[in-house]
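Fold Annotation — chain and its backbone

Encoding — discrete vocabulary of local shapes
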Amino acid sequence: MSFKVKGKIVDILPLQTGNSSRGEWKKADFVVETTEDQFPKKICFTLFNDKTDLVSATDKNKEVEVSFNLEGREFNGKWYHNVNAFRVDKIARSSEASTGDFPPPPPYNENDFRDVGEASHDDLPF
């Protein structure tokens, strides 16, 4: 089961690396503050190996939508959980969104429209 949450990246922790019996690994943690709730919450997400490139230092304070899985595991009689992100999509604000290569339309004035009551035989295009 996967989940999604929208929020702003408030912190990016340093990259961690190491070796295990399965080989080398990389781990990156980042913190997102939710923006959809009345009371914002901070959630620490983890990215592993090739996914660590999904966030970088330049992504701090950016609005994102994070897709993630929850995982629980037991170790020495205690339970631990991970919030593993697998997708991070940047959300473009309307002011940041591209408007394309087209200039904005010219403003309207009152002479651009006819009264509804006006009728002309030239109204039909055929």
Observations:
- The domain at 3-92 is CATH 2.40.50.140 (OB fold (Dihydrolipoamide Acetyltransferase, E2P)).
- The chain has a mean pLDDT of 82.
